[in-house]
Each structure stands twice: as C-alpha cells, then as structure tokens.
Amino acid sequence: MSDFNELLGLRDDVYRRPLETALQRLGVGPGWRCADVGAGRGDVAIELGSIVGRDGRIYAVDVDPAARDAVAEAAAQYAQVIALTQSVEDLTLPEPVDLAYCRFLLLHVHDPLVALRSMVASVRPGGWVVVQEPVTSAGRIDGEALSMPSARHPDIGALLPRLVRECGLDLIDAWSESPAGAGPGPVRKYMEELSEVDPGDAAVLLPPLVTVLAQRPLP
Ligand SMILES: C[S@@+](CC[C@H](N)C(=O)[O-])C[C@H]1O[C@@H](n2cnc3c(N)ncnc32)[C@H](O)[C@@H]1O
Predict the structure, then answer these.
(1) Reduced DSSP (H G I as helix, E B as strand, rest coil) percent helix, strand, coil of the chain, to 5
(2) With a 6 A CB cut-off, is 67 part of the ligand 1 pocket?
(3) So where are the chain's domains?
(4) CATH (residue range 2-131+153-175+209-215)
(5) Is beta strand 97-103 parallel, antiparallel or unpaired with respect to 81-85?
(6) Dist. CA 91 → ligand 1 center (Å)
(7) pLDDT tens profile 44-63
(8) For the chain, what is the radius of gyration of the CA atoms?
C-alpha cells in the first residue's frame, strides 16, 4: 500500500482547502458523529477525530481490509476513530451519524447513486452528507486534457448536485476548486504521482474537486 498511502497524503495537501471550507460551513465540532466512507488510510477520518474530540465518534469505513489496519495504526491515539471494513453499498453503522462524508470514492464504485443512497440512509434526519469528487477530464497539463481510464466514473463530480437531489437531500451548496501550479511544489508532485509522468515546468491544472453540501430533510 505504500504508493497508495503517499498519493493520499499528497491529496490531503493539495485538496485540503475545500475540505476545511466544508467542515467550517457545517460547524463540525465536539461531539459530532461522522462517517468517512471509502476512508483509505484515514487522513480525513483522523482530522475529523481531532475535531469531534473524545465525546464524538468517527467511523472510518473502507471495503479494503488493509485500509482498516492502516487507520487503526494511524489513529491509535484517537479512541473516537473506529475503522470498519464494509462496502459503501452495504453500509451498516452502529448508530445514525450527523455527517456522512466521502472523497474520491464515487468515481470508483459500480453505481454512484446506489452508494450515495446508502450514505444518506446512515444519516439522522437533519444531518449532513458531504461529497467531494473530481471532474478528471477538466484537469490540464499545458492545456492538454487529462484522462483517468482506471476510474469507472472519472467525471462524476460534475453530476453531484443532481445526484444528491435524486437521493432526496436538500442541496445547500456546491462548488469546485482546482489546485494549479507550475514547476516545483505540491501540485507538480501530486500530478507526477497521479500520472507517473513528471510534468516538469508545464502548467498543471489538477482535476477540479466538486464539493457538495447536502442535508437530509427533517420528517
Ligand atoms: C482514492 S481512495 C480515497 C481515499 C480517501 N477518501 C481520500 O480522499 O484520501 C478510494 C478508497 O475507496 C475505497 N473503496 C472503493 N470502492 C469502495 C466501496 N464500494 N465501498 C467502500 N470503499 C470503497 C478504496 O478501497 C479506497 O480506499
């Protein structure tokens, strides 16, 4: 898992800003119960764990058992972070959560709508669903469009506002952010990891990450 881990670490660096904006908008704080679905090694889950404190609870869910082991090791000092091996399609949490979150997950699943509905069902009425997914083909290297043939839905980010409404959620806000750069720095390093090609001094526009804030209506 070493390449995988390094890539996620870089992702936390270059795509950190929209995550912070989303968490601030919601007012995530002590005592919140959250699920980070498709958590990978748990960078976001651990961040959430530090925000919600000992009275909160974070379920870091991933279909890959190796991810659960990585989270368990990385979150050793956070008793409130609990790593679970489950697929998003079969998500079954011990309690309803205030926030179900995913990032870079829906582009890989078989059916994004099924996955999203499963996340919605895990949230209490009045709770939040936050989704962050890319529009891969809108990324550029020196003006040339990127492609990501390994992803089932590489441009799923562009559909998120409609998908959350189809799941019965109230769409509260949605926006996209694209880190950009040229020459040495985190953007070039991230692109090199993603494409396995060093972009050198080319202008790099990373895939826009669409963030959607949606709320489950009260009955
Ligand atoms: C690209 S990583 C993203 C990790 C993390 N969300 C982040 O942004 O750093 C995608 C993760 O989704 C997990 N995954 C893929 N399909 C899944 C599914 N059907 N249910 C749960 N997790 C899944 C993978 O095992 C992987 O850890």
Answers:
(1) 35, 25, 35
(2) yes
(3) 2-131+153-175+209-215
(4) 3.40.50.150
(5) unpaired
(6) 13
(7) 999 999 999 999 999 999 99
(8) 17
